[in-house]
Fold this protein.
Amino acid sequence: MTASPQLVRAAKNLGLQLAVVVGVLIVWKVGTEWQDSLFFPSPNKVLAEVWNGWILNWSESWNENIFPSLKRLLAGFLLAAAVAVALGVAIGRSRTFGDYVEPIINFLRSIPPPALLPLFFVLLGIGDSMKIVLIAVGVFPPILLNTIDGVRSIDPLYLDTAEAYRITPLRRLTHVILPSAAPKIFAGLRISLSIAVILMVISELYAATNGVGFRIVQAQRQFKMVDLWAGLVVLGAMGAALNVALTMIERRVLRWRQP
């Protein structure tokens, strides 16, 4: 019994990915042995710290670091996604409305989100609200711009057909506009997810008492280099897991596009 082509392709991709990971670890190991620096620990020490400090101590790591970070990241990301998609559809469907608001959007998206930290400290304090708003502001532009582009690139034939059949505006939105624009909306979501991880860490570097970013900066301040590198590995794993989850959601939502 021969394996299906899809299974063979998946096995090859998995093997290639594992080979890349092994190659990176080998280069890392050789580099640390050649450099022999306190600030550049070997992968053995880092992975041992990930195992002992994060995995075996999972309950404390989850409650004190991972869960607070995920809560802030997802809250800011989902808030920005909801507002950006709604506003993007409105702008994409109305050129007049877009002419009024796009200059303001272009001005605001030119401001780096970290530059807003002092302002948010004053307006929102140092709690989770400040961190969530900072993440939302940072991830908002890519989702908005991709939504606008997706709505404006809909084939006019789809809209004309919906109008000819007198489909209600709500059903036109849910059955024509959003599905047609969904590929570009998800492209914006994928871009924004990586930005959300960056801003989550930046927000936790200042005036935080928990979170992955807080643990990393604490390790840096105490010159615990192995702990710092372990935190970076955990942060990368968290970002990769979130990307995989978003990709699975995208494939499920856009399964109608798959051949």
